[in-house]
Amino acid sequence: ITTDDVDQLFEAFETAETEEAAGAGLGLAVSRRLVELMGGTLEAENHPDGGAQCTARVPVPGAQYAESPGTGGDAAGVGGHSLLLIDDNDLVRDSLAAFFRRSGARITVAEGGAAALALVDEGLRPTLVVLDMHMPGMDGVATARALRDRPATRRVPILALSADALPEMTAAAAEAGVTEYYVKPLDRKGLDRIVARYLG
Description:
Layout (H helix, E strand, L loop, with lengths): L2 H6 L18 H11 L3 E6 L5 E6 L24 E5 L3 H12 L4 E5 L2 H9 L6 E5 L7 H9 L9 E5 L4 H10 L3 E4 L4 H12 L1
Parallel strand pairs: 3-4, 3-5, 5-6, 6-7
Antiparallel strand pairs: 1-2
Helix pairs in contact: 4-5, 5-6
């Protein structure tokens, strides 16, 4: 890989111009975003004999772990906020949980809509819901609608995070009760704005 190619590895939709290169050119761009959300860095080093080595460095404080699914309850974090994070992708879910935990909020994670609704029905009282729109089984629209049907979450802000920016999806989300719609991949500044507005 040339030096110029190494510099472009983390740009979205960029691929090295070689016969071996394949894919959409999003893997490293998304990976760097996720690592940066956890307060780390992802860098690439060129190797003259071919290829490149990517190194991720992520801080791992002893208490920086997301709540396990089902731990719920109605207790809030030191900031008085309880965030329910719903996403079927383990990596995205855990990365977002690690980021939002820095606000001092209590984080409860759910791998899908049905699991999230079960937590609410068991007594979880979130002050904010962060929701993926494309999930197997119960999707984000159905989940948002079901949350709005429950007294405990009827007026709780619901933020959608999705790679789907089609007008039909954003309109369906709004109709279902989503408060704000953010398009993935969301950068650090975008997430900081969410924290300042809803978890500050």
